[in-house]
User: What shape does this take?
Amino acid sequence: MQVTFRFYEELNDFLSKQYRKVRFQHTVATNSSVKDAIESLGIPHTEVDLILVNANSVDFSYNLKKDDDITVYPKFESIDISSLTRLRPFPLREIKFILDVHLGKLSKYLRLLGFDTIYKNNLDDPEIIDVAKNEKRIILTRDLGILKHNKVTHGYWLHSQDSKKQLKEVIQRFDLKDKIKLFTRCIVCNGEINIVEKSIVISKLLPKTKENYNKFYQCNKCDKIYWEGSHYQNMLLFIKKLAIQ
Assistant: This one.
């Protein structure tokens, strides 16, 4: 049977060129859900925040009917649609991420900004999905397949392959500019960083570091030591350029 679709904004990036930014007819099987129809066109359900069928908001389980007119929208950054959308059972009150195995650099950048970010280069898709569900984490990935899994409720497909551009994407997509807490998480293991007395870590410091610095921080998980050296200033410039703008 025939239905009509129209996708808006960045959702068009997932579509074939002939379907982008236009209203088009699409053939679906009888009793197809709107979720299945959307994903058959290449769009993960996690990218969608509002579906209108014949001008009425529906959820993913809605069974399409002949001649239905469907408009599909991505995340609204500045408009509160909580009273309208029927897609999310609950919002994530705390922003936490889990990344796929190809996003190691992005994980360090997110931790640098203070975001709770799980990354391991040996996690497979089922493990990522289970951790995301159990710990209420957002999956960040370049793999569309993982986001189409029924158990996934919160996720984002990164458009760029460049880690610095990916960081900007994430900040903009989840409106994180005002939630950044620089240098509060360990970039190595994701543990929390706290101020530590110099006397406690002095035996682990190199001679020049002992001589030139007095303020130190330490990860409460892996014990990595941090201080505000030249690398600190370089990171500040990096964050100002990429994240805050």
